[in-house]
Amino acid sequence: MDAQELKQYLADAPPSVVRLEIEKHFDALTDQQKRYAHFISRASFYGSRIVARQISPESEPIFDFILALHKSSGGDWKALQAKAGISDEELDHFLQYAAQFLGNNGNYKSFGDSKFIPRCSESAFAALAATSPEAQSFYKATSGAIFSADNPSLLHLGYPEQGHMTTYYPDSPDITKTEIDAVSAWMEKKGLLPENTRLAKKKDGLFEIWIASANTTVPSEGGDIGKETTFKIEGGVLAGKTITLVYGDFSKELAAVTASIRKAAENADNENQKKMHDAYAKSFEEGSLLAFKDSQRFWIRDKGPMVESNVGFIETYRDPAGIRAEWEGFAAVVNLERTRAFGALVDAAPSLIPHLPWSKEFEKDSFLSPDFTSLEVLTFAGSGIPAGINIPNYDDIRQTEGFKNVSLGNVLSAKAPDEKIPFIAEKDLDVYKRYRDGAFEVQVGLHELTGHGCGKLLQETSPGEFNFDKKNPPISPLTGKPVTTWYKPGQTWSSVFGSWSGSYEECRAELVAMYLSCEFPVLKIFGFGDGSIDINGEAGDVLYASYLSMARAGLVSLEMWDPKSKKWGQAHSQARFSILKCFLEAGDDFCKLEYNGDDLKDLKISLDRSKILTAGRKAVGDYLQKLHIYKSTADVETGVKFYADMTHVDSDFWGKKVRDEVLRNKQPRKVFVQANTYIDEATSKVTLKHYDATPEGMIQSWAERDV
After folding, report:
1. Segments of the chain with pLDDT less than 50
2. pTM (two decimals)
3. Contact call for residues 429 and 421 (beta carbons, < 8 A)
4. Is it true that the peptide bond before 305 is cis, omega within 30 degrees of 0?
5. Cβ contacts of residue 322 below 8 Å, gap of 6+?
6. Where in the sequence numbering do the catalytic residues fall?
């Protein structure tokens, strides 16, 4: 790979290191609530090594290498520099790489799924490693993978048969997508959920499904599909092959997670919290996702807690097949003041959803009002921290029992000093800077609550039983004819739409938010305007900032598209790029890109504020309606083809000219330094320790986390 190409894979210099501020919110908790938060925080962080192992083979030894250097130097990096004989610049590049690595829990970006490589020479890392025998052994265990860039396909996460990196299919370089899909279909038929599994292809026609559990044997009363662990496949692609269930993946980590979860249960505020953690403990100990689903049911019922949390194998974005989930866990404190606005949005939701561009046949029979809280994050363990969350991801629970939404306030408000804002025109910068936080909060609220929370899946719930009138099926607004497709028994949204499901659903939720943010009473809920239509007032400023933000997000998302594999590396980025295209194709000069010369110098977004409520909203509504109806009716063939067209990047204009300009203006993504909590065994009191928003502070926080 030439130097120019390699540039885009170099670690950020400097990375944008910011601190998650939590102290005043944590201090307001009772002693019992602090203990509860502490043990959930510990449980979450004990899963950090799981995340590293889910990213790449080298991520865990890199993690240990960084911490071994901190240990051997006592955190005195200048003394270590002198001992290693490296320059100031080489030390800075090591620290910057380490901060980005720890902020992503691995050596692939959590937002983009591409590898990042240190800016210094390999010899500088080797010199640092030579200062400590322990560091040396971990460095050796990375097998040169920190710097390796000779195989461009391995610089991106994806399917093994396409040459990409993945550890969801460990030691299985020759496993095919067809085989992965066939095993997935077998699991679906058996009723074995995939989120906490990995799949290994062994010799002689053997496939092993590794189940994450503290215990290394099948539970005495049987696992989720009974006591049997070996299955001979009769027909289909896998005819004659054997599938074996292997318990105990991530055993050591999940034993530590379970121990902390049990202590959290002892400090629970109520019975729902206690039952939730008991179900977590059973799930992590035995590998039961049926128990995990029970934990989510109790979590939904735990309304209005002061300490909010969720722990487990949650999001499936990084598995190339889109069904196996990455570990994450969070503990957060409720911000009561900001939560009031989200509570008002929940109250308004039943009157907002009918505004969406489909009839009631394609909507849930009744809106299950969820908890919606604004949280200040104490701990978020995983590969990255989102701005908002809507879970659980299990459609059978969501459709009949409900879900919860959270907005992560101290993540939304975290700012890096001297943040640059490319692609926004000078005339728009003032309103954009003033209202982007407010616009983002509105967007997150609508995205999580009404976006992920709306819509009905037409299903044959069991053989011969339907959740719609089969004799008089709903009329599709796209064809004007009765629908002819729906979900069959055992099928879920993600099992039908597969690897497309994550990005497709994020796009649908973003579009719902863009569509409903045009309802001025919504803007009033968040403190902007009086609820009447006024595109030129303060509420109009927020709406304008929201549409500008989405257009800009769509533009900068091209960083996440790989021209070699022609593959998107991030679900939200893929979605936002398609929404920018939707804006540009809206007509009536609603949205344009303005630039000078063939190299697109000084590229800026031009968006006509006066046409947001007309051409803009209509284009958004038309796009949204198609995505929603295809999803609702399980029309995977038409839906995927349509979405693939909308997210297609042509090689010349978007893939070369625009992307080059985006990369020239690339800004480092924020990585968060998180506090640690400590419990005094004698007094049972919990204390909080913050760290500096520097690479050194980031490393120290992880060293003292002791996971």
Report:
1. none
2. 0.87
3. yes
4. no
5. 316, 494, 497, 498, 499, 500, 501, 502
6. 448
